Amino acid sequence: MKNSKANQIKKLLSINFSGFIFLSSFLGAQAQQIFEDRKIAFDSSYLQSKDELKDYILDTGDILNIEFINLPELSGLFSIDEQGEIYFERLKYTYVRGLTIKELTKFLEERYEEFLLNPEIYIRINTFKPIRISINGELRFPGKITFPAFTTDYLKIEEESLRETRLIDNQTSFDNLEAPVSSQNENTTISYLEGSTNFIKGPNTYVTTLSNAIQQAGGLTTYSDLSKIEIIRDVPIGKGGGKKRAIINFLPYINERDISTDIRLFDGDSIFIPTLQEKDKSILHKSILSGLSPKFIDVKVSGQIENPGIVSIPLEGALSDAMNLTGPKKPLSGKIFLIRYKKDGSLIRKSIKYSANASPGSEGNPYLISGDLITVKNSFYGRTSGVIKAVTDPFVGIYAATELYQNITDK
Q: Which domains are assigned to the chain?
């Protein structure tokens, strides 16, 4: 009996083991097929610099690592001062504002020919100056934004490694737009995906991009037109100066998580996001999932409410959300007063006939934006009772003191 049971167990184990081997072989074959299908051939040209900073314009705040080949005594870090100049021991103060790295390299090699035989100079940026950009249009908080400077040595990356990241080469994107803005076709559109052979996408942790600017501007609205974002950029002096413009289709970023359209921004860039003719509710949740818009906003509620203070409500949350989190309203409370700054910087002060049953976004239950101040005011009866209390309180105190005195003396 025991032998028959043992034989049955052996058969089951044999069948399971054989099935496991078959399944492993099948999965291995499938995995091999999948990985083989994804093999992409590329040659050493992939290692060549993308030259992402070829149109980077030097200015105050930039610190350059200038290397004179075989002359370490002349090499070092050189900062651009408030006047846009760099001090060199042999050349003294040299004006470099508005030049690119390539232009400065050429000019220095020409100037140092007075002192050196065939000078060879290499320049890279050690510290990037703060980036000041303007972003306007269909955003929650349009305006001017400043991103802080960063040092490549501190981050242990070099200019060349930045060029190797799989961010879109924004200079290449602008290469066909070298003429001044006034001469550009308004329908000019840049496609970053057609004909692209790069398949490795790198991080954008160390550079400021379009998505960073949108985030700092409070995020998108349900009327943001991402298919026609306009970016205007300064042209280097060596290329004639002036401005150039590009129209960016940023929809792949929120629809497909495609970072190839998340172009790098330079100091002085101007960004404009146009307005859709009809509201698109899908933009809201897509922008939240892609990190362009915050999940929650902060508003302040005060006055005749049980739990006054700063509360977080969902993006495009209504007044009812704030009241539910801080309420209920106290007895004899009145209308609600709203103070808000508009996109153009003007201030709104208005009373709201609040209704908890009103639809979100309606006049009686408006949508709120970050920074709104909400006060629940006293009603007429609440104010009247307050006046009466203020007037009668002293007499109540006198009466109580008299009663106490009489009670003591009677005893």
A: 63-128 (3.30.1950.10), 131-289 (no CATH), 296-382 (3.10.560.10)
